[in-house]
């Protein structure tokens, strides 16, 4: 199954509820840019919501994180995955991306020196990757989650973070999804079950506190 064209939609507001009273601390946090690869982003209309503001908000967060010394991680699936590596994903999503161009991070959010790109094999950015170990080495136990797709990899990564005692912070207007309903569902689930949902303005303000303190 190829990824279908995704219709435009307005990004939902973050839920008021919180699973926990955690506050985002730039001395403890890392930023995840989840699967912002050409293959996945091609499904969106680039000039409209949700993807246009999402890309702008991730860019703002990247700038704030780099200035504040917050570690930046990208997840990216490789092209031409061997069937034994791709496993059941082939039965649900087909063969996936096939070229280096498709696998590349979009130009607007290109990794910079000092960022780390994690090769990703499943929905979660933690499954079969070194993300948890890299965060531990960096002394980080909070994860700011951005990228695509909200109710899939972003939500599952948030749940995995929680189960690894890493506090997940999902940025409501820095993730995109298949629909407004699925986007809202992802925000609600994380807010109720495992983390904190906040918007990009609040996340940038919290991250930037390290740069001015």
Question: Quick summary of this structure?
Answer:
This protein is α/β, with parallel strands linked by helices and 213 residues long. The chain is built from 9 helices and 6 strands.
Q: What keyword list fits this structure?
A:
39% helix; 213 residues; alpha/beta; globular; Rossmann fold; 6-stranded parallel β-sheet
Shape: globular
Relevant CATH superfamily: Isochorismatase-like
- Tally of alpha and pi helices: 9
- Class of secondary structure makeup: alpha/beta
The poorly predicted ranges are none
Strand order of the largest sheet: 3-2-1-4-5-6
Euclidean distance between termini CA atoms: 49 Å
As a percent range, the share of helical residues equals: 25-40%
Reading the helices and strands in chain order gives: EHHEHHHEHEHEHEH
GO molecular function, one term: isochorismatase activity
Pfam family, one: Isochorismatase
InterPro entries: Isochorismatase, Isochorismatase-like_dom, Isochorismatase-like_hydrls, Isochorismatase-like_sf
Protein name: 2,3-dihydro-2,3-dihydroxybenzoate synthetase
Structural features, described:
With 213 residues, the protein is an alpha/beta fold. It has one domain: Rossmann fold (3-Layer(aba) Sandwich), CATH 3.40.50. The protein contains nine helices and six strands, in the order E-H-H-E-H-H-H-E-H-E-H-E-H-E-H. The protein has a six-stranded parallel beta sheet, with helices on both faces. Helix 2 (51-68) packs parallel to helix 9 (200-212) and helix 7 (150-163) runs parallel beside helix 8. The longest helix has 18 residues, at 51-68. The protein is globular, with a radius of gyration of 16 Å.
């Amino acid at each position: 199954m190829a990824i279908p064209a995704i219709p435009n939609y307005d990004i939902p507001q973050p839920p008021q509820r919180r699973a926990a009273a955690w506050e985002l601390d730039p001395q403890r946090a890392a930023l995840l840019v989840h699967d912002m690869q050409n293959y996945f982003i091609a499904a969106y209309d680039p000039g409209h919501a949700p993807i246009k503001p999402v890309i702008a908000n991730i860019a703002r967060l990247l700038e704030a994180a780099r200035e504040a010394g917050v570690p930046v991680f990208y997840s990216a699936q490789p092209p031409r995955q061997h069937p034994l590596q791709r496993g059941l994903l082939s039965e649900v999503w087909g063969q996936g991306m096939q070229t280096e161009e498709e696998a590349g991070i979009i130009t607007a959010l290109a990794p910079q020196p000092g960022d780390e790109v994690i090769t990703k094999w499943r929905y979660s950015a933690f499954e079969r990757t070194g993300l948890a170990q890299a965060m531990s080495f960096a002394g980080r136990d909070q994860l700011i989650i951005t990228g695509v797709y909200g109710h899939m990899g972003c939500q599952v990564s948030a749940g995995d973070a929680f189960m690894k005692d890493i506090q997940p912070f999902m940025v409501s207007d820095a993730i995109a999804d298949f629909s407004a309903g699925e986007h809202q569902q992802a925000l609600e689930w994380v807010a109720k079950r495992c983390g904190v949902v906040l918007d990009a303005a609040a996340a940038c303000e919290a991250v930037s506190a390290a740069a001015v303190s």
